[in-house]
Amino acid sequence: MRQSKLVIFIYSFLIFLLIFSKSVTAQEVEDQTQFDYSLLDAKGPGRWGDLKEEWGACKSGSLQSPIDMSSFRVEIVKKLGEIKRSYTPSNAIVQNRGHDISVKWLNNSAGTIQINSTDYFLQQGHWHSPSEHTINGRRFELELHMVHLSFDPNATYKIAVIAQLYKIGPSDAFLSKLIENVMPIADKLEERNIGVIDPEDIKMEDEREFDYSEGGEKGPAHWGDLKHEWSDCKKGGMQSPIDMSSDRVQVVAKSPDIQRTYYPCNAILKNRGHDISLQWLNNSAGMIKINGSADNYILQQGHWHSPSEHTINGRKFDLELHMVHVCPDPNVTNYIAVIALLYKIGPPDPFLSKLIENLMPIADQMAERNIGEIDPNDIKMGGRTYYRYMGSLTVPPCTEGVIWTINKKIRTVSQDQVNALRTAVHDFAEVNARPLQPLNSRRIQLYDPNPENTPN
Ligand SMILES: [Zn+2]
Ligand SMILES: [Zn+2]
Fold first, then answer.
1. What's the pTM?
2. pLDDT tens-digit profile of 33-66?
3. Is 310 a catalytic residue?
């Protein structure tokens, strides 16, 4: 059995609650000229409490941060009231605040954490270097603060911060993506739109959270019990994947087009442990429009499942590609659209052939690799016949409301290519297809411009 070579560089994560009695803003102070970090300076940390009347707490407060977490000060508890995180991809800006760089999610739409049944909305994340908190006196190279706010007037604590510490080692995937947006605002008090950013991309846990083992306690049958925010995996009535049997399918002659407008765009290949994902950067790989609606679903990433998750008349195929698109408009209810392509063993898939040499360096580790410009148009869709139904993500949190489009044309992939994908992911996901889910009362439509040609 291969050992996973996961390098753990996230040391620990901590939470703190801050008490604010008056009106609260999510930000730490904005103006760089108002304070600094020099120990001897008149505006340094030792003087912050004297600089402004409303900064008195810096000096006279008795619950100040940061602190050292020394073993002898720490009380170990079995369960420290669970943190329920449910984040959503949402539009964000990156902001140079002079004293730090901050990623700020807009309109309170990036999701929440729940602590002791109070919801705290994610506002922004920013970095301190070196770390502010220390563990047993040890300081780390970087500290991320994820700032959350409660709008509940009855909540005792208004602000909740999740802090994560980093030491020098392999690159942090989230920062890698961000860094090219930071360069243009270097040394300027400016901000920059960076499109949709998924806070889930900030990895907080290194251990695998779920797997595909049939009887295992982290297997598909238990996904819905593993976390509160994964309950859709168990309770949802519109789960994916499903079987597309002829007797369930309604044939629709007129195909409302999927308009695809893709562009070549810089991408990374990422080993997420449970799959290999090709992620286009900066929301610039283009979009699709569905059913003639004006909403733009922006291409985020593609990833592979093997064997296939969806089946046609009970037949499972060897590989399934999911092209994931997200609509950034907060008013759109069904904001995720996935196009699925099915493959059976045969001649190699030309698109995968190009990627495969980048797979080995990230095999078996949670790593990623810049692979330069990748043109999503190179993924040949072929065929204008496809299935459409409403379903869910096929991995936790199994979010529902996903618009599924499954291309009916079966493409080919070589056995070597399937093997390469399987070896690259972690052992627990060599087979990474979720079992079929009940159809319930859903409709499956088969859009076929020439229905008489389709025996299905
Ligand atoms: Zn901070
Ligand atoms: Zn998928």
1. 0.58
2. 688 888 888 899 989 999 999 999 999 999 999 9
3. no
